Amino acid sequence: IRPAEGDRMVEIGPGLGALTAELIARAGRIVAIEIDRDLAARLAERFPPHALELVVGDALAFDFRTLGRNLRVVGNLPYNISSPLLFHLADQAEALRDVTVMLQKEVVARMTAEPSTPEYGRLTVMLQVTFAIERLFTVPPGAFRPAPAVDSAVARLVPLGSAAPQIADAERFARIVTAAFGQRRKTLRNALRQRLDEDAIAAAGIDPAARAETLSLAQFVRLAD
Fold first, then answer.
1. How would DSSP label each residue in 69-118?
2. What is the three-class DSSP state of 66?
3. How far apart are CA 137 and CA 127, in angstroms?
4. How far apart are CA 200 and CA 88, in angstroms?
5. What is the pLDDT of residues 190-219, one digit of tens each?
6. Across the strands, what pairs with 12?
7. Global pTM?
8. What CA–CA distance (Å, rounded) separates 204 from 196?
9. Which of 27, 84, 115, 116 has the highest Cβ tally under 10 A?
10. Which residues are within 8 A (CB) of 36 and not within 5 positions of it... i.e. 6 or more apart?
C-alpha cells in the first residue's frame, strides 16, 4: 500500500486493528469503517481520535465522497459482500486515488480476466471500464487463523479517470452487461432479445450469434450506446 504521511487513508473492516495500527504509524491519521459495534468500541479504546476517525456503519451504505477526494481505500474485504462493495466503490470512483484490497483469489481472477476466458464476466466488465486492476500477490490459507478453505489475493484498483471509456448512459450500460451475462450459454441475439433486436446488434459491428464472454469492453460500450 505504501501509505505516506498525509495520505487520505480509508480502511474498510478494520476488525481488531492489525492493519489499522500499521496504517496509522505511516499515514498519521486514517478513517476506518466498522459495522460491528463491539469491535468499533475496542478500536476506539485502542486508538485516540486524532489518529483514528471511526465510522460505525455499513460500508455498502457509506458515501465515501463525504470524506473528500483523492481517497486511498484499503482493507481485507468481507468475502460475502466483496462484489457489491466493489460496485459501490466504482460508483464513487471520482473520489478515489486507489483501492488496495484482499479478496478471494477467484474473485481477483474474475476482476483481471481477459475476454474469451472462463473468468470473464459481468464483474470483469463493470470494473474494468472504471479501474485499471492489478493482482499484486496471493495469500495462502495458512496465513489466517483459523485457516479458510480458499486462497486469497491482494489487488490494486486505480480509477481510469479521463482514460475511462466514454459511456453515454451508465445505467443502460449496466443493464446491457447484466442481461448479456445473465445466461452465459445464450447468444447475444437471445440474451438481449428484450433490449436489442438482431439488426441493432449487427449495426454495432457485433455478430448477434456471439456470446457475451467474447466481447471486448469497447464492444459492450457500442452495444449500450
1. SSEEEEEE--GGGHHHHHHHHHTTGGGEEEEEEEEEHHHHHHHT--TTST
2. helix
3. 19
4. 31
5. 999 999 999 999 999 999 999 999 999 999
6. 33
7. 0.94
8. 11
9. 27
10. 15
